[in-house]
Amino acid sequence: MIVQSFGTLALRETPSYSTPTYGYGASLNQASAATYAALYRTQPEVRTVIDFLARNVAQIGLHTFRRVSDTDRQRLADHQIQQWTDKPNPATTRYRLFETLMQDYGIYYNAYWLKLRFSTGAIGLVRVPSESIYPVGWLLPDHYVWTWPDGTQQALPPSELVVFHGFDPCDPLMGLSPLETLRQLLCETQEANSYRQQYWRNASRHEGIIERPLTAPKWNPELRAKWREQWQERFAGAANAGMTPVLEDGMTFKPMSYSAKDSEFTDTRKLSREEVARAYHVPLPMVGILDHATFSNIKEQHKQLYQDCLGPWLKQISEEIERQLLIECSDQQNVYLEFNINEKLSGSFEETSSSIATLVGRPIMTANEGRARLNLPGMKNDPTADQLAQQQGGPSSTTTGSPSFSNGAVAVLRRNWMRQRARLERIDVGEKAAAFDVARYDHELADDLEPIYLALGMDRTAAARAAAAIAHTVNTDTLQLLVDGQDPFAAAREAALYAE
Fold it and tell me: 190 with 143, same domain?
């Protein structure tokens, strides 16, 4: 079968197959015709969990790579398979394609994409509703039968579909929906919902009986019917909720049903959501069950969501796309797909930058890159603003990484700290910070550093500006340590010696 465009499908054959009774058409119980799709529409617990999975899977980007070696890989942003999945067809975005894929997967445990072939060699992808297609074969499918809304059946060879299905021990070509496993629990929930609706619709809103004393006047059928009619009219219906009935002739009302609290309606609904979440391996706090949730365990369960819950789904989806769609590409050598799950697992910017800086041991951004994150203009006249600093250390941690700091610069810093220490030696510890003359020390250190920048080829204006900035940073750090009651000069000497 070859599809010429998005609007026309060329049929190879139109066989007349009878649709077998697979799980997707099974009823919830003998008195109900609810299919899996109907359960998704009507059961809040089912929809909550499946939509949660679908939205999170669709949010994660799918990237294409080429394996260069065991320690190196190349991102293929323009690969054919990347283009096909990023823009599956004019009416569908990548997000919608994967969201509906995961919804079909969650409801039926089967999902299908139809390959649309173009004369240019490109392939479009269109979701086929899972309830409208089924396989024919046993261990391997011979073909798939697709039933259109008008009842027409079309045979599709496996090569024209991308098929995703789970595992069913009774049928290797179909997945066993988790909703089938939850059948009894969902049946119980459905009956509880029906009972709850009837509970609030019944006449007096309280099931029970009204007793009349033996001494009360005897009622004939006409009086009994008239009193019942008056009771229904006065105390039944939503408009009369909360009205206090007035009984006659010594009558008493005896309730004969459990209250909503005694019936544990709320706990029953929470139990249903818990069981559905467990069937799909979703951490309970992720779907709003916060009974035992704390900040720390929610953070850990967020990691568990992407590692243990979504991880297997993503692996299965990526491998099926590789198996069935990569074979259509002209470039297949060492190409593989991978969901960008690390983006979801990464912490905040502060946590990520701190951990990377610890691993690297030096700054990971230039000054201009940092300013860009703050929407500030770059410092075009300062060449050091586009250079990464070297390894950090001591109170001048922001300065020793500058590429201009050769051995001569380290010697300048050491002399500066020794000069400052000598001037502050005779001053009491509590008064050293007040005696620290930042303006004077900035001027002295900038004069010493400027020749080093000039030797690197910078013009006098740029060298003076860079030296002044470095000097101010060094002295500000030193002053802060003095304010904190620390000795900045011992650490400074060690840092200078280490840098040297």
Answer: no
34 and 146 share one domain: yes
The pLDDT tens digits for 189-209 are 777 777 766 666 654 455 667
Bridge partners, 146 (sequence order): 133, 154
User: What are 338's two structure tokens?
Assistant: 């991978």
pLDDT at 69: 87
Tell me: do 379 and 429 sit in the same domain.
yes
Average pLDDT, the chain: 77
Question: Which tokens belong to 378?
Answer: 């770059």
119-145 burial, b if ≥16 CB within 10 A, otherwise e?
eeeebbbbbbbbbebbbeeeeebebbb
The number of domains in the chain is 3
Residues in Cβ contact with 121 at an 8 Å cutoff, skipping those fewer than 6 apart = 330
Last residue of a domain, one of 319, 346, 373: 346
Residue 375 confidence (pLDDT): 74
pLDDT in tens, 406-462: 556 777 888 888 888 888 888 877 788 888 888 888 888 888 888 887 877 777 887
Regarding whether 66 and 112 lie in a shared domain, the answer is: yes
Give how far Cα 167 sits from Cα of 25, 111, 145, 150, 174, Å: 17, 13, 20, 30, 7
Task: Enter the pTM of the model.
Answer: 0.58
Distance, in Å, from the CA atom of 283 to the CA atom of 359, rounded to the nearest integer, reads 31
Mean of pLDDT values over 254-265:
58
Higher-confidence residue of 197 and 497: namely 197
CB contact at 8 A, 252 and 208? no
The H or E element that residue 140 is part of is none
Which of the two residues, 237 and 220, has the higher pLDDT score?
220
DSSP 130: G
- Residue whose C-alpha is closest to residue 364's, from 376, 355, 374: 355
One domain for residues 82 and 143: yes
Containing structural domain, residue 188: 183-255
* 294 and 146, same domain (yes or no): yes
Structure tokens at 218: 């005897």
Q: Residue 147 CB: number of other CB atoms within 10 A?
A: 16
Tokens of 380: 């075009």
The DSSP annotation for 194-254 comes to HHHHHHHHSTTSS-EEEE--TTSPPPPHHHHHHHHHHHHHHH-SGGGTT------TT-EEE
Q: At what angle do helices 407-424 and 488-499 cross, to 10 degrees?
A: 170
End-to-end CA distance of the chain: 72
Provide the 10 A C-beta neighbour count for residue 101: 24
Q: Is the predicted pLDDT of residue 242 greater than 60, yes or no?
A: no
pLDDT of residue 368: 83
Among candidate residues 318, 312, 36, 289, the one with its CA nearest the CA of residue 182: 36
